[in-house]
Write a structure and sequence with these properties.
Layout (H helix, E strand, L loop, with lengths): L2 H12 L4 H21 L7 E5 L1 H10 L2 H7 L3 E8 L3 H4 L6 E8 L5 E9 L12 E7 L2 E5 L7
Helix pairs in contact: 1-2
Length: about 150
């Protein structure tokens, strides 16, 4: 769906008389837009493959994605930045829970990670970013959904 068409549908939805219907429609449009955005990560069609945490970390580490960000080959783009629950995260006060997109020189997302950024500038938890999705050779690797097996 083109951006113009998406915006048109968004405004039509907002003008709808039923508020609950509008909210439901907005959620559907947002979900559809995310899928369309995912398709635009590369020019080629993307195959989605669900993998375990260990498999995703292996792909991420073997591809040197984090090192490529540190060296400037990839650019890190902050998508979300919030304070985590101190008890659940077991991190110092004022640590930030972040979702970060790694982008190549064309601006296409090649990986997405979660990390805890401590006030002193170091990464918390494992001391490394935790990959949530990795694009490699036209395959988008994502974590297996909870409750399913690989």
């Amino acid at each position: 769906m083109s951006l113009d068409r998406w915006i048109f549908q968004l405004f039509r939805t907002i003008e709808s008389s039923s508020r609950s219907r509008s909210i439901s429609s907005l959620r559907k449009l947002k979900r559809h837009w995310r899928i369309c955005s995912l398709d635009s990560m590369t020019q080629n069609p993307i195959t989605l493959k669900r993998v375990s945490c260990d498999e995703l970390r292996k792909i991420f580490n073997e591809g040197d994605y984090w090192q490529k960000v540190l060296s400037g080959t990839f650019v890190a783009v902050l998508l979300e930045n919030r304070h985590p629950s101190l008890i659940a995260a077991n991190e110092p006060f004022c640590t930030h829970s972040q979702m970060v997109s790694y982008r190549d020189s064309l601006g296409s997302e090649v990986a997405r990670v979660h990390q805890y950024l401590r006030p002193d500038g170091t990464l918390g938890a494992s001391k490394k970013p935790d990959p949530k999705r990795v694009l490699k050779d036209g395959i988008l690797y994502r974590l297996t959904k909870k409750g399913t097996t690989t």
